[in-house]
């Protein structure tokens, strides 16, 4: 009697996109231009040295659950979060862009 193991298609990016979209278990909220963006410290730190330093380094945001971001438009911050979580940029219609946008240079 054999045992079959079914391996599904990789879904980590879809799972991360769901985490971002739903905000479930978010442990930090960024406030940008009056809009709130719930996020997950471990995802941000794993994907961005800037977020890692901000959230886990000696910066004051280390203990904060709400971080105010000045001098940035909410739509830009939203696109940055989308890229961090999904490796793609938003398509402008509220969805995730195609692979055509992967070659854009987005500093973080």
TrEMBL record:
SMART domains: BTB. Pathway: Protein modification; protein ubiquitination. It comes from the Eukaryota. Residues 26-93 form the BTB domain. GO terms for biological process: protein ubiquitination. It holds the Pfam family BTB. This is BTB domain-containing protein. It comes from Miscanthus lutarioriparius.
């Amino acid at each position: 009697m054999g045992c079959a193991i079914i391996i599904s298609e990789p879904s980590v990016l879809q799972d991360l996109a769901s985490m971002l979209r739903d905000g479930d278990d978010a442990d930090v909220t960024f406030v940008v231009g009056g809009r709130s963006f719930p996020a997950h410290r471990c995802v941000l730190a794993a994907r961005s040295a800037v977020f890692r330093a901000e959230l886990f380094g000696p910066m004051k945001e280390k203990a904060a659950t709400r971080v105010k971001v000045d001098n940035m438009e909410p739509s830009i911050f939203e696109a940055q979060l989308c890229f961090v979580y999904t490796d793609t940029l938003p398509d402008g219609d509220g969805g995730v862009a195609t692979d055509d946008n992967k070659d854009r240079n987005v500093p973080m």
